[in-house]
Design goal:
The protein has about 425 residues and is of the alpha/beta class. The protein has two domains: about 5-220 and about 340-425, Zn peptidases (Aminopeptidase); about 225-340, Alpha-Beta Plaits. The protein has helices spanning about 20-30, 45-60, 105-120, 145-155, 160, 170-175, 210, 250-270, 305-325, 345-360, 375, 405-425; strands spanning about 65-70, 75-80, 85-90, 130-135, 195-205, 215-220, 225-235, 235-240, 275-285, 290, 295-305, 330-340, 340-345, 365-370, 385-390. The strands form three sheets. Strands 1, 2, 3, 4, 5, 6, 13, 14 and 15 form a nine-stranded mixed beta sheet that branches. Strands 9-11-7-12 form a four-stranded antiparallel beta sheet, with helices on one face. It has a two-stranded antiparallel ribbon with strand order 8-10.
Length: about 425
Amino acid sequence: MSEGRTGTVAVGSNVPRADTGRIAADIDALRELTLPDRPYTRRAFTPIYAQGRQWLSAAMADAGLHPETDYGGNLVGRSRETDRGSVAIGSHIDTVPDGGAYDGVAGVVAGLEVVRLIKQSGIDLPFALEVIDFLSEEPSDFGVSCIGSRAMAGTLSEADLARTDGAGTPLRDALRAVGGRPEALGAPLRERGSLRAYLELHIEQGPVLERAGAPVAIVSGIVGIRRYEVRLTGNPSHAGTTPMDTRHDALPAAAELVLAVERLARGRAGEDGFVGTVGRLAVTPNAANVVPGEVTATVELRAPSDESLDEVQRELEARIAEVSSERGLGFRFAEASRTPPVELDHELRTMLGQAADAAGVQALQMMSGGGHDAGHVAALAPAAMLFVPCREGLSHAPAESADPGDIAVGAQLMLQVVLGLAATR
């Protein structure tokens, strides 16, 4: 990734360029707000996360925004009250455990920079401008991700709110503790049409942009994500005295499940980028001298179409049933969560492409293999995303890194879209 790409972005004489140093300083400030022994860890609902939001609230206020926490626990900085609606830019500042300093943060900081540029230029927008830090985009201890954007879209269910963390605290109580109002959820938090557009910048979390030497990609859509809990039940027994031909061992069946997920995903990968993962196995009783009596596996499937996901789900269920029958096991296959594929707004994508062309910026077109808040906000309003490169495609790791110059290019392109939306009234 090269330095100083902001210099390639053409802007009007009265519109300042995104400040790479200012963007880097914002990222560094949030980088310091992490568990000291586990950089970079800033999990939602924790004291260090509250500190991050305190910093962000102050930064919003300094940029001329009025920060508030909405009913879904999202921190929203708004430029003014108006009946003309708003345009929002956002992402999230929570991290995975031992994650990185750019995932989510880059998008929030880019939003702040756009607001500062508007303020510097003295432009009076016909609508309000918002920066949103969505609550808990990353998978939470409650077993659900994108909590804030789901709440905003009205899709955070009663069952979700009843989920508990390891300490037995219901999500509804945790949400209330960060300033949300779980009793007011269930319907979208914004009236249809009041949010005129939503823009989100995010690091790619993969190697494509860096390999291409391109500073940005316009995201065409976001894959559908389904998670399943598969429970295989046999009989625990003594590992030394139970003959091999009389065992009902759940773990070899789980191994076959893992391989089946891999085989089915590989078979589809070249067709539509399908991916499948078994990311968690819980073995019971998990003792060296006991034949495993039960294994619970978490299976995740991702694809751009529901048709692909449906087909692989059917094949996987059939294979699990077959393996369980052959090995004399019981099984339960249950869907834990479902996020449908989303095509992002064509008009906003066109505007981003036009801004990139006018600025002489190479912008790829790319499908997102990761879930994002934009996928949920898209149910409420036109939504679009930009990706910027991350070093070696690495993300969700302490070594995650991105060039502030690339983030500045993305912020400048989003600024041009905001100005284009203002011109259309």
